[in-house]
Predict the structure.
Amino acid sequence: MDNTDNQKEIKMTTRPLRFGIWALVHGSRAAQQDPEEPYDASWERNRDLVLAAERLGYDSTLIAQHTINPHQEDLDQLEAWSAAAAIAALTSRIEIIAAIKPYLYHPVVLAKLALGIENISRGRFALNLVNAWNKPELDKAGIGFAEHDARYAYGREWITVVSRLMQGERLTYKGEHFDVRDYLLRPSSLYRPRPLIYVGGESEPARALVADHGDVWFINGQPLDDVAGLIADVAKRQRQSPPLRFGLSAFVIARETDEEAQRAYARLLELSAKDAPIKAIQKANTDPKVVMMQTMQKTARVGSNGGTAAGLVGSYDEVAARIGAFHSAGIELFMLQFQPFEAEMERFAKEIIPRVRALQSARPSEKSTALAGSH
């Protein structure tokens, strides 16, 4: 952006903070060889994890979608959509977000699945549109792995069909990829117009897609100034829908003191270095045009989707204050990772969430915030 854009003020409403957790669909998020968290991507572990998160007061869970493990193909991988349906039936309050890669499901079929989980959950379901980065997942299935911008063009047409069907529209649609004729899905959502649509990706096609079709933009973990610049860029774009909301992925390491947190961080960094062979496989299988992967190469970090690059490493008070700063910049939902997950998830609920709520209570719950662009 030019200097004029940098100085442009964008008025937006700061929504109440929400906290979510990444389901462990392919095991540990920081390091696979951690004696404190043996590899476990089972349904039972994920079921118990989400139920515990709901009891602890977390607001949301994200279930990433992979048909084969993206790190090492002989490792277990939880199936996202069947798990989401089961979790919907077992929980009562927490939001359930299932990721989806458009090439793997016809939009009519996926819209029907989404509406089913929406009604099982009584209006707590959302889908997270991601346009794929793991080449073997599509290539080995004979689907083919299209060029980056072509995947987004396909995803744009795909979500157009899904969104309109989820809203209960009788749809006739003719596009480059789909020919849907007089299609109607019943029941539609019994609790609201349709499930929410989250969109991931930070390339220009991804930003245009979320501005046109998304309800919430998921941003990968990165420093506050970078996040503020991304929000400023997308928030100023014209939309037909209500104002866009924003979520951030982050790996948290919080302790009583910053020194303790840095020691824990150093331990996980050392353990994650043992995963170098797995990371090399992942890099070879990844489209180099994917902005998430480019961003993740900038700094040493642990965790996926930016991980500790968001800076939520430090004392309880420091981490709470940094969360408050991200919230002031427009982040509503923090989708969090931990390791060992269950113990650190409980620590965060006990030590960080009350501190953040106390900071929130010191200012109005809704206010107009001026966002500057990236510097």
Q: What stands out?
A: The chain has one domain: 3-370. The longest strand covers residues 245-251. The longest helix spans residues 341-361. Residues 1-13, 365-375 have pLDDT under 50 and may be disordered.
